[in-house]
Amino acid sequence: MPTKTVAVLFGGRSVEHEVSVISGHQVMDALDAAGFGVLPVYITKQGDWYAGEGLHNLELYREQTFHAAGLKNVYRVSLSPDRSVRQLVVHPGVGGGLLSKSPKLWADVWFPVIHGTHGEDGSMQGLFELVDVPYVGSGVLGSAIGMDKAMQKRVLQQAGIPTLDCLVVSRAEWDADADGFVKRVESKVGYPAIVKPVCLGSSVGVSRCADATELREAIDLALELDGRALVEEALTDFIEINCSVMGPPERASACEQPMGYEAVLSFDDKYKHGGKKLGSGASGGAAPSGGAAQSAGMAGQRRQVPAPIRDELTARVQGLAIDAFRAIGAGGVVRVDFLYQERKKRLLLNEINTTPGSMSYYLWEEAGVRFDQLVAALVRIALDRHEVKRATAYSFAANLLTR
Length: 403
Known about the structure:
- By secondary structure, this protein is of the alpha+beta class.
- It folds into three domains: 133 residues, Rossmann fold (3-Layer(aba) Sandwich), CATH 3.40.50; 168 residues, ATP-grasp fold, B domain (D-amino Acid Aminotransferase, Chain A, domain 1, 2-Layer Sandwich), CATH 3.30.470; 68 residues, Dna Ligase, domain 1, CATH 3.30.1490.20.
- The protein is 32% helix and 21% strand.
- It has eleven helices and 15 strands.
- The chain has a six-stranded mixed β-sheet with strand order 5-4-3-2-1-6. A five-stranded antiparallel β-sheet has the order 13-12-11-14-15.
- The protein is globular, with a radius of gyration of 22 Å.
């Protein structure tokens, strides 16, 4: 069978841009190790698309003066929504015209590794649906629900999955009556409270508030980053337990217990503190090539894997994680984060991440799945889903326009 080429999209117009660059390079290294051809597709913070082999080198992105346009054999491109094209097109003004089918600028499968807005929220997935190409991960609806923390809670609660209640405020509502919303929080949530942007990840803009002053500051910050802010109870005396799910068919990974440096697991806790580097031998042959993914990303976070919890609790977490995966209509691989209060024996689903940092490969290693095996499985799931989709009819002979 000819080698399939996988386009890995990373970067993006998102506050999680740098995290995506690291995850994208980790995925490209793993695909290399699995024997796939790799087409790097870098999306700048302004939303410009570039494609070419020269983009697979993480060291380039560390330079303050980095610009993809200056790289040899790297092209400014677009992906046409016209399904008759189904390939990258050179951007007008830089050579022009439709590119011929090429192993360098053509892909059989599309692998978005863009965290946050314009990549994880269903927008990128909608483009892939229009183009009619196989792609890795959740579809439009699953991605959108996974990104929107408020809607996600509603769906999960409807499915009988325990999660914290919340209050949500938009920019317009906050500007019109901030005092009124603060009173609602104090009446229904109380202090301490957690404030989050509704549609962001990686703990960006998340704050813990002990009083009304901190609450106002936290909401102001969250609303700078997103159009809505979510406020929920800040639990005390709890641990975090995370689990990954892959499918369909669905299966759960080992569980982990993250070890945060702060009361709220921050961006720095997740991505900057210690930990092993990818390629240290733990990824089972998916070591970096050409000096690529030398940062561990989410894999560098301090954690205990497997989580030091009872077998019964592990089974509960894994079962609820699979239930949540199905409830939102997810696909590919996700990470499901839980909060557990031992004294109350209370297990709550905190949130689902449909494009998890480092693709949660470190959780699958503990379950006996190497990173290269994980990405190969995700590509196969994408191809199988696309094959099933081809059986769907999209036209109907209604004859409404005939006389």
